Amino acid sequence: MRHLLGTKTFAHGIHPPEFKADTKDLAIRQFDFASLLIVPLSQHLGKPAVPIVGEGAEVTRGQCIAQPDGFMSVAIHAPATSVIRKIARSPAINGKMMPAFFLEPFPASTQEMPGGNPCDAETASKDEIIAAIQQAGIVGLGGAAFPTHVKLKVPDDKQADLVIVNGAECEPYLTTDHRVMLEHADDIMRGIPYVMKATGAPRAIIAVEDNKRDAAEVMRKAIPPGQPISVEVLPVKYPQGAEKMLITAILGRKVPSGGLPIDVGAVCINVGTTAQIGALLPSGQGLQDRVITVGGPGVQRKGNYRIPIGTPLRYILDKVGTEPNVSTVVMGGPMMGHAASSLDIPITKGSTGVIAMVDDQTDTMISRHEYPCIRCGHCVDACPLFLNPSQMGLLANVQRYDEMASDYHLMDCFECGCCTFVCPSHIPLVQKFRVAKSAIRKAKAAV
């Protein structure tokens, strides 16, 4: 039967080493406040937030310090009771210098977070829930940082049949969603009704991979009686957590090229995002911290930590301790994350992990030696979207970016990294695709 474990999956994909054992059984711990927090005005896809407080202002933890600039934007909140020392540019993971608040927390503060304007799932309208999520500053915590309220705003000509709460967490090393499901099941169950009401979906499925059966069991036990919520345990495969793959695995539907999940009646939302909705909306509070996996062979005190937004990467690594031969620090997971170019980069809402690699590790997923393509076809066999990474890579080498998009569906690629992982020539295909996409977007913006 189709509902048996092992039958609900998608074609292609890969099985990279998981490296989750070091942190999956470690409870979430609160991280200390750094002496300086750097809070970017842009922590989400869309327009940066607009500051509503100035330099020298004293702010309370959870206080809104920047308002959304239009619908495709979210609010920013103070991660600590502090004073704003300056508003200036700070390095971001993409290498750019972006405007940010520089906050100095008060050492003697209890860092209690006052409530705001509560939003009740039973009495609030769809629009009120969507507005509350935007004002709470909630974005996709699985790494994409797409504004959650935008995702939950279903167009008038579309209909949501199902909400998929994504607890797959297929990236190696990362165990944040696993721990959130184990430790914050009540928040998740409070968050799901908000999501269902906002989207109009009549039911919800919590999707969990088979390597998290303990979390699946906790989720099942936490479902309130009579609620149209169920749990699906899926085979372990990467990139199971990608929403298009999850929809195919659970519903057997394929999101069309250039389309969105709602085009096939589905809305996907990360389990950590759902937990934040359930934790913040009832009290009217704003997002000011998040759970992050700090691990990898270069980290001495690995774990899952609740870290204030704006905490510099350097402070985190100093606190957890690192091996002397750390060579690369990855923000996010090793498959879809980005190597940090500076240790002054702060944690943002979209940060899922801090993974430190070392020089002599034999299990590294990052190679520095690139060789010519041998046309073996491994990347074609691995791509979950049935693209042709090999041919796109060759076109990228000669900057034929428009041809990559028009003839080979470049823009459908969600940069999962399967092609790069299986390439015996160690060609950084995903990086080439990112460059190509950026060039295409810049060309369109210039028109």
Tell me what you see in this structure.
- Helix 5 (213-222) links the parallel strand 10 and strand 11.
- The chain has 13 helices and 17 strands.
- Among the domains are: 130-283, Rossmann fold, CATH 3.40.50.11540; 378-446, no CATH class.
- The strands form four sheets. A six-stranded mixed sheet has the order 1-14-13-17-15-16, sandwiched between helices.
- 27% of the residues lie in helices and 19% in strands.
- Helix 1 (126-135) packs across helix 4, helix 4 crosses helix 7 and helix 11 crosses helix 13 (429-446).
Number of H- or I-type helical stretches: 13
Strand residue percentage: 15-25%
What would CATH call the class of the domain at 130-283? Alpha Beta
**If you consult CATH, what is the topology of the domain at 130-283?**
Rossmann fold
Runs in which pLDDT lies below 50 for 5 or more consecutive residues are: 1-6
**Helix-and-strand structural type:** alpha/beta
Number of strands: 17
Largest pleated sheet: 6 strands, mixed
Q: What is the CATH homology-level superfamily of the domain at 130-283?
A: NADH-ubiquinone oxidoreductase 51kDa subunit
The global form is globular
| Cross-sheet strand order for the largest sheet | 1-14-13-17-15-16
Q: What's the Cα radius of gyration?
A: 21 Å
Helix content: 25-40%
Q: Kindly, what is the distance between the CA atoms of the first and last residues, rounded to a whole number of angstroms?
A: 52 Å
Offer a few descriptive terms.
six-stranded mixed sheet; disordered N terminus; 447 residues; 13 helices; Rossmann fold; alpha/beta
